[in-house]
Write a structure and sequence with these properties.
Elements: H1 3-14, E1 28-33, E2 36-42, H2 51-58, E3 69-74, H3 86-93, E4 97-102, H4 112-119, E5 123-126, H5 130-136, H6 138-146, E6 150-158, H7 175-187, E7 190-193, H8 195-201, E8 216-220, E9 239-243, E10 248-250, E11 253-257, H9 263-273, E12 278-283, H10 285-293, E13 299-305, E14 323-329, E15 332-338
Parallel strand pairs: 3-4, 4-5, 6-12, 6-13, 7-8, 7-12, 8-9, 9-11
Antiparallel strand pairs: 1-2, 1-3, 10-11, 13-15, 14-15
Helix pairs in contact: 3-4
Amino acid sequence: MNHEIYMQRCLELAKKAVGNTYPNPLVGAVIVHHNKIIGEGFHQKAGEAHAEIMAIDAVKNPALLKESTIYVSLEPCAHFGKTPPCALRIIEIGFKKVVIGTLDSHEKVNGKGKKIIEDAGIEVISGVLEKECQELNKRFFTFHQKHRPYIILKWAQSGDGLLDQDFKPTQIGNPLTKQFVHQLRSREHAILVGTSTALTDNPRLTTREIAGRNPIRIVIDFDLKIPVNYHILNDEATTIIINSIKDQVKGNLNFIKIEKDNFLLNLMAKLVELQIQSVIIEGGSNTLQQFIDENLWDETIIIKNKKLHLLNGTKAPKFTALLSNVQQFRENVIEFYKNSP
């Protein structure tokens, strides 16, 4: 039996819920009987059935389950949360074999699910397409292993390395890269900008160009300078205002007071407390540079319009890293970088 084929299908299923399962991981499951898929499922939303249960419930003839193999991209859970442990359900059914993509680093699981199943006398194979399964849940793993959100830095710059012209909002990307950015936003939990960007660009930070969920908006505004009629304070999305003055919840606005000393460390701790697993840092240059200087990033995405020269304006952050991928979007190029562990 080719385990990789069925695990690949688990990954395909899991990706259908990208951006919708926070704070839970993305998981897909496939049940195979005599080399034929008889049930599939994926975790769609926190609080709802896990992938394994969805796949089990999809099987039309439950009598086949005891002679079947269940494939799951992430180790079955072993603890009671909003739903009962999947590992116990697997044991109750008595599957012939369980194939796991990667173990779950969450402290409540972390090998326990696998051990429970093995102790029940069921054969378990793990580590099938392990890297791909870990990549799928890079946000979840980073959050639980590093105790901070997965951080993506993103900006657009001209051919002469500027973010704007004469320090005024300037369109650098094209409609295709704009759609790409909105798709990126819909996949991540939150998006963050500094005071200058909020005041100068008056951004919405939503996914209005596509059919997708809006991320939580985070704005650093220590002195609460942003006028109440600015887009970032409207009711289109939950918005967190990091400041040095007050703690207050007002409708969709959550004012959170954080000390300026050791700011990034304090910010990461607060985002973990809020269960935010991933953040896109969209600007401005000073905010981005702080994360770069502290080496506090996992991915960097730079949109470049090499033929556009703005001559005068805000300089792009100073950034050096090994390029991992490049994509062409008409006259724009998008460069992708990954930070080494």
